[in-house]
Amino acid sequence: MKSNTIIFIVIALAIVAGAYWYFFTGTGNQPPLTATTSFENVSQAQFQTLVTELQPISFDTSIFSDARFMGLVDLATPIAPEAIGRLDPFAPVPGVSGK
Predict the structure, then answer these.
(1) Mean of pLDDT values over 22-33
(2) Mean pLDDT for the stretch of residues 30-53
(3) Is residue 53 part of a domain?
(4) Residue 39 counted as domain residue
(5) How far apart are CA 61 and CA 41, in angstroms?
(6) For 46-82, b where at least 16 C-beta lie within 10 A, e where not — what string?
């Protein structure tokens, strides 16, 4: 065997051993730090406060049944279909000199 092959095998075994240690010894499954957890609790409490402030908001939907709303007309302009352009826009145009 060449020395490059031996080095490659040693490195591959070290990577496999490291992956085994990380996934199967339980060190990779630790809970997050307490500072992050307390920050999440604070942001969750702020979110709950905002939700309770927004719940009393209501909208009057009777406008949708009003005669003035029903009399509105759509003024959208229909778009006419266009012809497809050239397949290669940079190709020379037939009949036009390139001067």
Answers:
(1) 67
(2) 75
(3) no
(4) no
(5) 37
(6) eeeeeeeeeeeeeeeeeeeeeeeeeeeeeeeeeeeee
